Amino acid sequence: MTDHADTFWDRLDDINSGMLGLTEDPRLVPMSHYVDRENRTLWFITAKGTDLARSLTGSKPAIHVVSDRGEGLYARIHGRLALSTDRAKLDEIWNAVASSWFEDGEDDPDVQLLRMDLSEAEVWATGGNIRFLFEIAKSKVTGAKPDMGDHYSLTF
Fold first, then answer.
1. Would you indicate the residue range of the signal peptide (predicted)?
2. In terms of Cα–Cα distance, which of 30, 46, 20, 35 is closest to 101?
3. In the prediction, which pLDDT does 2 show?
4. Local confidence band at 138 (pLDDT 50, 70, 90 cut-offs)
């Protein structure tokens, strides 16, 4: 992997959520993601009754947008989203946050796992909050434009 890819995965792993949706539908919904770097996949836990889960038949083109100033990552991530019945993956990623949504925990019949196989991402990687403030202050002293980090695309 390139340095850009490592930066992307490392920072994405430290971010809790983003906005997920299908590219055919302009509505995006907030969702927590779980990073699977090795398989270039994001996982999501949702309820079977959500509009997003009900709209999935097979896999469909999807988008996940993350924006986290603290981690210095802004990204538009594309891939294919599908329903999954991978119980081992659900066991692996299940946590206290997910359990807050389901009365019977991991065994709740409404639990639905989603798998997003990534195809590409457009990424803006900055230095985070402190770097941003430094760059703004430096620009005021030197008159130079602030360096806001790297902008790049990744293909998975």
1. none
2. 46
3. 60
4. low
